[in-house]
Amino acid sequence: MIGACRAWIGRAPADQAPLPPDEEAALAASLGIAPDDEPRPAGAAEPSDDDVSFLNDEGLFEVWPSHWSSLRLFTGCATQWDHAGADGDKTGLRYDRLELVARMMRIEFTPEIFDDIQVLEAEALTIWAEERAARLARIEDEMRRGK
């Protein structure tokens, strides 16, 4: 799910190499995911769902079926972020809009989905903060060098 979030933002998860099958199975078991809960490509929709794909240089990202609705809702809220500052930096999702977007997308909004949304939101905000810090460091460096 995090890999697909990073792909949606446009940041390849180079630091997230796939786990070997035995480690993936052990992780799934520790999280209470059934062995038949196979990952699906992010572009393969469940019956009657809209197609959502996450493509970048790495290709399609796999999403566990139990996370599919959460990821669809998260990407469906792309225009529902609060912004601050002159650059309009994103500061967090508008939680008051999540249920409306879920209803419009025909996604049952559950506490588990809300928890997943917060995980994805935190990852997105971390990535954007890193990008903002790198951008500011480049600007400061250029100013020091007199460009």
Topology of this structure?
Layout lengths: L1 H8 L11 H10 L9 E2 L13 E2 L2 E2 L1 E2 L1 H12 L4 E4 L4 E5 L1 H10 L6 H34 L3
Antiparallel strand pairs: 1-4, 2-3, 5-6
Helix pairs in contact: 1-5, 3-5
Describe the structure.
The chain is mainly α and 147 residues long. The chain has one domain. Helices cover 50% and strands 12% of the residues. It has helices spanning 2-9, 21-30, 65-76, 95-104, 111-144; strands at residues 40-41, 55-56, 59-60, 62-63, 81-84, 89-93. The strands form 3 sheets. The protein has a two-stranded antiparallel sheet. Strand 5 and strand 6 (89-93) form a beta hairpin. Helix 1 (2-9) packs across helix 5 and helix 3 crosses helix 5. The model is unreliable at 40-53 (pLDDT under 50).
Low-confidence segments: 40-53
* Spatial arrangement of strands, main beta sheet: 1-4
Structure classification: mainly alpha
Q: How big a fraction of the residues is strand? A: 5-15%
Distance between the termini: 41 Å
Q: Find the count of extended strands (DSSP E, 2+ residues).
A: 6
Radius of gyration: 18 Å
Mean pLDDT, all residues: 75
Number of domains: 1
Question: What percent of residues adopt helix (DSSP H or I)?
Answer: 40-55%
The 3D shape can be described as: flat
Following the backbone from N to C, one meets helices and strands in this order, namely HHEEEEHEEHH
> Mind describing the biggest β-sheet?
2 strands, antiparallel
Per DSSP, the total helix count is 5
